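User: Quick sanity check before I run a bigger batch. Here is a single chain. Can you write out its predicted 3D structure?
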Amino acid sequence: MRSAFNVIHILRSNLPCVIMICSMAIISCSNDEELPELLEMTDESNTDNQSSDDSDSADSTDDDNPTNDCPTTSGFVFEEANGIIAIEFEDNTFSEDWVLKNNQEDTSGNGFMQWEGSPKMNDPGNGMVVFPIRINQPGTYRFIWNSSFRKGDNGTEHNDSWLRFPDADDFFGRKDDGSVVYPNGSGKSPNPNGSSSDGWFKIYRSGNDAAFKWEAFTSDHDGHLVYATFENAGVYNIEISARSDFHGIDKLLLFEESMSMNAAIDAGATLSVKTTCD
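Assistant: Done. Predicted structure follows.
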């Protein structure tokens, strides 16, 4: 009885080893066709586990990649650097009523774009052009463009287009005395003199000299400089659409508000990097 008890005790205490030995014996007794199948199942299981791990790793990498916000709808984004975004206006896709002109020495790049469709005085959104920008340094930025009126000799005609920052945290006009206006349709007040709707500002230049110059005002007869605030780093849109016919636009400049306009214009001679979406 003691001998039988000892045998049972040994078997119980070494049960994993016994199972392993039995399993090996079973495998060694399997025919040649069954063994590869068993090994193949083991390989597939390992492969599945590896694929799952790789997928998790890829997802994690994508989430950490800051360029994933590049808008595939446009296929590109202009990069802010050192508080400046400088863009040749013609560096985009336009409707046929925007016409490329290159007959002015006071423009840069390939020339300037001129609206030759019908005027859209109280109807923003026509012939719209979207410029995606990536803000890396959040803050409040001032907007100006290099533009001209290209018909007649009256600087109050053919001198404006529509502008909107639809996803900025704030979009407003401001004077040196601190007074502020917001576009109609923004839900904020006061609103500018003259035409404005659906979050769009009418942006104009002044003077009867038809030479291209850096200037952008909103609110008729009460010119306010133009600003947009971005509270977080990320991709935002600049939207421009037609208003006056024969308004010519050469270049866009957005710069951090603490920077002087002259310094920004000088720095803006180097264009912003245009990143293509993968």
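The radius of gyration is 33 Å.

User: Great, the batch can go ahead then.
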